[in-house]
Write a structure and sequence with these properties.
Blueprint lengths: L13 E11 L18 E3 L5 E5 L6 H21 L2 E4 L18 H10 L1 H4 L7 E5 L3 H11 L3 H8 L4 E2 L2 E2 L5 H6 L5 E2 L7 H13 L10 E2 L1 E4 L4 E4 L8 H16 L9 H14 L4 E3 L6 E3 H12 L1 H4 L7 H12 L1 H11 L1
Length: 343
């Protein structure tokens, strides 16, 4: 049995994780964050030494979590500056060659890279993870199925990674494609109960395919230790206000979820691909499976479900488009400096 904390926090509590790139201040080339400054709780290492993870505590609202993130960004920025480094937020770092980046000295990460090989080495990308507290294990699984059909829409409005290795990829979210290279990525399988998920996770551990259940990288997953449903779909936003907008949308989706039948994984895979290819210009299979709809139309419908206050802040997000506009007009060096400034 996997110990869990479902129901132990206030209903619909929220926590947010951000992943930021660490760069030399002059060249803007990836560089390790000072290991001594990582506390393992609020500031944590990631797979790559030049990425730092920021983690809020359990918060009562998205607004509270955003305020805490603002403080964490400030602290991390100051610690980086003391070492001649700067931070930048985005789904990928436009000029970095992923396979050339240093891996963090950690036994779990080392074993993962040995197992996944080039698929692991390509994971130089960053996402926004939103945890929402749920009342019970079964409520977690019900919420997972309810929000899953809407997550490609979340990706479509969050896309923020059109460049990899100094080139346009032709994708609005190269990060989402890169994540697809991993085992246990994309949508989770259909489980008939929380016990079914638990048995799957325990089997991976028993077979030595994972050293802990967090080595399951689905776009949404149960997180028993925190007692949350963790949504991992969005690209990492650059501006903090965009983090707040996307976290608010995810929180509203989970909070308004109602248990129902298992989501259509085939439609999900199609929509996920369309979202990372086209972003805001994607046409997605409607959750009822009957027709294709444009992103603005689907946002209108979602506003009727979760409230306009959760949807309106993401309506005009076009982070990938902004990156491409600057990159094409001014070059990638200018784009990189802008990403640092906006972070």
């Amino acid at each position: 049995m996997i110990p869990h904390a479902f129901g132990q926090s206030e209903p619909w509590s929220v926590g947010i994780e951000e992943e930021l790139f660490v760069l030399e201040a002059g060249s803007l080339s990836p560089a390790p964050f000072p290991p001594a400054e990582l506390d393992g709780v609020r500031l944590k290492h990631e797979l790559f030494a030049s990425v730092v993870e920021l983690n809020t505590a359990v918060c009562g609202s998205v607004a509270d979590a955003t305020r805490e993130l603002a403080g964490l960004r400030t602290v991390a920025k100051e610690l980086a500056a003391d070492a001649g480094l700067v931070l930048a937020a985005g789904g990928t770092w436009p000029t970095a060659f992923p396979e050339e980046q240093a891996i963090t000295e950690d036994e779990g990460f080392r074993r993962f890279v040995e197992y996944a090989g080039p698929s692991a080495r390509r994971q130089y990308c960053s996402g926004l993870h939103v945890h929402v507290g749920v009342a019970s294990p079964e409520a977690c699984m019900g919420a997972l199925e309810a929000v899953l059909p809407w997550l490609p829409l979340v990706l479509a409005v969050s896309v923020n990674s059109p460049y990899v290795a100094g080139r346009e990829t032709g994708l609005a979210s190269a990060r989402a494609e890169i994540l697809s290279l991993l085992p246990r990525s994309g949508a989770p399988p259909v489980f008939d109960s929380y016990a079914g998920w638990e048995a799957f996770a325990e089997r991976l551990l028993a077979l030595g395919l994972a050293d802990e259940y967090t080595r399951i990288w689905w776009d949404v997953r149960p997180h028993p230790r925190f007692g949350t449903l963790e949504v991992r779909m969005p690209d990492q936003p650059t501006r903090l206000e965009n983090t707040a907008a996307l976290a608010g949308l995810v929180h509203a989706l989970v909070r308004s979820s109602e248990a129902g039948p298992a989501a259509d994984r085939g439609a999900y895979a199609e929509n996920r691909w369309a979202a990372f290819r086209f972003g805001r210009e994607a046409r997605l299979i409607h959750p009822d499976g009957t027709r294709l709809v444009a992103v603005p139309e689907l946002l209108d419908e979602l506003a009727g479900r979760v409230g306009a206050a959760a949807v309106d802040p993401v309506r005009e997000l076009d982070q990938a488009g902004e990156q491409l506009q600057v990159g094409r007009a001014e070059g990638l060096e200018s784009l990189c400096r802008q990403l640092v400034a906006l972070t």
